[in-house]
Amino acid sequence: MSWSLLSLLLMTPPVPLQGVCEASAAVVLPDGRVLVADNERHKELYLFRVGQDQRLHAVGTLGMPDDDRPRDIEALGLWGRDLAVVGSHSTKKHCEASPKRARIRALTLGPDDVLTPLRSVDGRPVLDAIRASTAACQRTLFTAPAPPAARAVCQAMREQACPGLDTEGAILDPDGRLWLGLRRPVVGGRAVLARVAPGDTLRFDAVVWLDLGGHGVRELVATLAPDRAYVVAGPVTDGGGPHALYAFDPRPLRGKNPLRLEKLGALPASTEAYVPLSKTSGIALTDGDGDQWPCKEKSAQHLVDFSPPAPPVKSTPPAPGPGTKKKRP
């Protein structure tokens, strides 16, 4: 039996995620609560606690400050009590640019559960530059001198049916620098992990490749352990398809070094977020249908377990009793 098939068999039946239609990202707060984003709702984020039943239970919401709210929130990154809320930067259905999606909002979470704005990062100039030329993309999206991967990334962004990028993962490295994982483009079969440069306009100053079997990044997940993080891999396009979970040590990001990925196993189709419960188990959050409100279908939570199977127990024949004659060969 393959490892991916085994992990699918170890999933429990899904249950609805209360109050959330299209879960798109999640982070675990220092106090153990879980903060979840819904990519159809930009005015609030959703708070949950993990119950004894290993399910997420709703405990409230956090209001997003009015100014510069990202639309189509697809990633959350956490550093202490500082939170990065990341819009998808994607185009709309007919390839139209969406300036409000091209935003990153940095906030801090106060002890009273109030989000206070820190700064914003504007990605609007990037969208125009990608469509203009590869050279314009390199000048606008990357710092000078540009990292070696800049040209290949810009070419891949321009060669898509809808030129641009989709951001679906965020993680902060040990130095507190924000890295974004791209769902698309995939460059030469590898996914893109790019570090955001300081400033109020989106620019990258480093790129690390991720070998996710031709898939893009659908979520990046930090943990309280400095040597443990996760990436959810999935298809570049919407519509379900196979998803998988990988573990990695994020510390090499400090030196822009390659990451060694460990594939843990399969996840449900349309997994958009992952909440780790242990090194080998967690809660996968899948997409619902929130195009209308109230939504037709809520997001679901699936308990998944990647523990290795127990070795088979070898049976031994009973010892011969007294008076038992041994058979001659």
How would you summarize this macromolecular structure in one to three sentences?
Helices cover 10% and strands 40% of the residues. The protein is mostly beta strands and 329 residues long.
How would you describe what is shown here?
The protein has 329 residues and is mainly beta. It has helices spanning 3-9, 124-132, 134-141, 150-158, and strands at residues 15-16, 23-28, 34-38, 41-50, 56-63, 73-79, 82-87, 103-109, 115-122, 166-172, 178-184, 191-196, 204-210, 216-222, 229-234, 243-248, 262-267, 271-278, 281-286, 300-305. The strands form five sheets. Strands 1-20-19-18 form a four-stranded antiparallel sheet, with no helix packed on it. It has a four-stranded antiparallel sheet with strand order 2-3-4-5, with no helix packed on it. Strands 6-7-8-9 form a four-stranded antiparallel sheet, with no helix packed on it. The longest helix has 9 residues, at 124-132. The chain is globular. Mean pLDDT is 90; it is low at 1-6.
Radius of gyration: 22 Å
For the sheet with most strands, the description reads:
4 strands, antiparallel
What's the CATH architecture? 6 Propeller
What is the distance, rounded to the nearest whole angstrom, between the alpha carbons of the first and last residues? 38 Å
Helix and strand content put the structural class at mainly beta
- In CATH's first tier, which class applies? Mainly Beta
- The strand order across the widest sheet is 1-20-19-18
Ranges with pLDDT <50 over ≥5 residues? 1-6
- The overall average pLDDT, rounded, is 90
Total individual domains: 1
Q: What do we call the CATH topology? A: Neuraminidase
Q: What's the tally of helices?
A: 4
What is the 3D form?
globular
Quantity of strands, as a count: 20
- Give the DSSP E fraction (strand runs of 2 or more residues): 35-45%
Q: Report the order of strands and helices.
A: HEEEEEEEEEHHHEEEEEEEEEEE
Percent of residues in helices comes to: 10-25%
- Multimeric state: single chain
